[in-house]
Design a protein that fits this description.
2 copies of one chain form a homodimer. By secondary structure, chain A is mostly helical. Chain A has helices spanning 9-17, 22-28, 36-42, 48-60, 82-100, 102-109, and strands spanning 34-35, 64-69, 75-80. Chain A has a single domain, classed as Winged helix-like DNA-binding domain superfamily/Winged helix DNA-binding domain (Arc Repressor Mutant, subunit A, Orthogonal Bundle). Helices cover 54% and strands 12% of the residues of chain A. The first copy, chain A, has a 3-stranded antiparallel beta sheet. The structure holds a DNA duplex.
Chain lengths: 117, 117
DNA sequence: CTGGATCCTTACCAAAAAGTGGGTACCTGA
DNA sequence: TCAGGTACCCACTTTTTGGTAAGGATCCAG
């Protein structure tokens, strides 16, 4: 549901990373560029369809860069733009908060906590 | 779409603040407790129904505290829990990122940028 | 009685997001 | 030909989130 006007920076940012998969994809790319297949394996539970759909959206938002290599088998590589890198940096405290409170969040929502690493 | 297992802290956090309204409500409460009506006026565009629905979810997630004052007219006050305070702190960098990139985000998504303050 | 204050619930619908299944393209090798 | 590799698209369905409208409760004042 797109607001007609953002009320603040947080409103805009939430719009960019909203949905189930975007933040996870962003994080999967933080260590470096990945091809479609590698990305899919990095993001547990995502379907190829959703992966490609969401990557296209992120590309349109210019937080992700998509590079096509003309070779066979086809090879497409996704990487963070500088904007995406800064977004990922901004997401670190949020990820930490989630980590710190993982067990409680998971319990309240009836979800398994993330494996410890 | 609830994951059966969180993959990391960020996954859990995104689950907690997901949707159009939660982050905005969290932010509205950062300066102090607010009654339902005041909250509704603080969060542009939200309907009473959505406000109450989302507040109930946030209460269940224990990021928001709901206090009923037995008086007339009825008065219910919402405030951040310590967990909610820390979540708000974790959202600051994300809000800053959104502010820094407001015009570009708004343009790409066909939304009006937030008024400058 | 009606109108006002406050807060909340329900029924139903709309819109958006996510998912499933089928298919396509480029090729190579057996 | 079939099987494998890679990446992607489309049609349709399901699920989730958000929205509208109507109703309710507690009271007080005119």
């Amino acid at each position: 549901m797109k607001p007609r006007q953002y009320s603040c920076g947080l409103d805009a940012a939430i719009d960019v990373i909203g949905g189930r998969w975007k933040a996870l994809i962003l994080w999967a790319l933080h260590a470096g560029p990945l091809r479609t297949g590698a990305l899919r394996r990095s993001v547990d539970g995502i379907s190829e369809k959703m992966l490609i759909q969401v990557l296209r959206e992120m590309e349109a938002d210019e937080i992700v860069h998509r590079e096509v290599f003309h070779e066979v088998p086809p090879r497409v590589e996704y990487s963070l733009t500088p904007l995406g890198v800064r977004l990922n940096e901004a997401l670190v405290p949020l990820g930490d908060w989630g980590e710190d409170n993982m067990r409680a969040i998971a319990r309240r929502r009836g979800v398994e906590p993330a494996p410890t690493h």
